[in-house]
Amino acid sequence: MDVVTAIFEFFENASKESFLKFWNTVPFQDSAFWKTFWDSLWTREGAMNLLSYTFWVFLVICAFFYYLFPKKIKPVWLLVCSYAFYLYDRSGLQMVTLLIGTTAITYFSAIAISRLKQVWARRAFLLLSVCTSGGILFYYKYANFLSQTWADLWGAFGITLKASVIDLPVVLGLSFFTFQSLGYVIDVYQKVIPAERNPIYYALYVSFFPCITSGPIERAGHLLPQFKNPKPFNYNKVVGGLYRILWGVFKKMVLAGNMDLFTREIFTHMEKYPGWLLGAAALVFSYQLYLDFSGYCDIAIGAGKALGFDLLENFNRPFAGRSYTQLWDRWHISLTSWFRDYIFTPLSFYNRGLTGTLGKLQGWFNVFIIFPISGLWHGDNFGYIVWGVLNGLFMVVGKATAKKRRKWAKKNPLYRSKFLQAVVQCSFVYLLFTICIVFFAASYYGQTAADGLYLFTHLFSTQGNGDLIALFCQKLELSSLTLRVLVIGSLFVELMEMWGKPDVVIRKLWMPARWIIYYALILSLLLFANFGASGFVYGTY
Fold first, then answer.
1. Most buried among 34, 395, 449, 523, using CB within 10 Å?
2. Domain shared by 203 and 272, yes or no
């Protein structure tokens, strides 16, 4: 009432004294007032989770009006929805300037590159885009890591330096929208695609909400034409997209979520368990990571299909690969193809004159270097770098020995059976992948590269609690039925995905069989989903 009275008195007696009285009564000059006011308007903390009811309601509203609006309004509406998705987290309001800045710089740089004829000028604008986008990515992800590493390096020589730690916020989708925008500028520079003149289409390409947080990393030549030529409502495509979302939620919440209970316990308390359980956790984490990340991609692709768009596929049964090269051709396809097109291919082009042993060494180096860079892209932890280095070494050794292994395969008696050959080769590739993934898992669960090494040095240890029943049923509260669901569900995932894309396969099934699968997936979610595991592994990158 004091505030209301002060306002009325101010308007009735508009004098200097009444203004000062009003100003002193109403706390406009108090920063705490404005903070409280803003907090009351925007109470949400954290990004919009693709597993939340909020996202599903958001997607329904977005799709409903998208199909309702005329063609000219559709991209504007999607852009508004994409920025609303990004701004759902209050910290997104601060970080959206980075998204807008990256979009603006790469947009104008690409136009300049397309118009200019001088090579030096075109390279200057390409360099501008690389430095600004790459600089933003480097600063927000690695500034503190490099500062601490520099201090530790001097500390090894007995010189004490204090690492300067900057309180940097986590920028939603930073690793993905920077790579997406950089890929676009490089494609324009190489004249693969023309520069996009319409800022709405380009801004939408950079910020499209289904894939901004964790990919797939889209290509402008694939996504921009779809924005310009939107398809009308298609029942089969929309329903297929909704099933793809359900499929991804099942993989994440029922399978990966329950596996996470086991692997998290082991990796965060390795000293409590015997070696065979450490090895089991490593083997499980490899498949858990696949289910988690591919599950997210299924949700993102399904959301895109619900809006009438085809996003890039990011996985193609990677553990069915019979060589390490085949595995990486099927794993995180949008990222590996990005590194292939924008790092490996340019390096190979500039070193194309080398021949003989030097040429082979250079070719192997070009293959190797992609993986440490990929490890660094995943996070500011030496565990990710070790993961990348090991993957690079396995890839190089695989390519260097490919011919000899093919000769040995012809003489191997085990390979007389094609089925047995496939089992042996796939198992060996999975084992190599798991050796690398130990360091990835240690970093993801907040451990260090040394903890990953601890796992290998204690694989044959018999110390610790090896009582599986006590671990699963008492500590982790997992029933024997849940364990059966994990085994059967994993086999079902492999079987369905062996036939093709889940959203395509399901529409080809006999209707009763289709609805049995729908109800089985929904029932498994209601009974066995780990709703506490709502975050995605790649949501942290």
1. 395
2. no
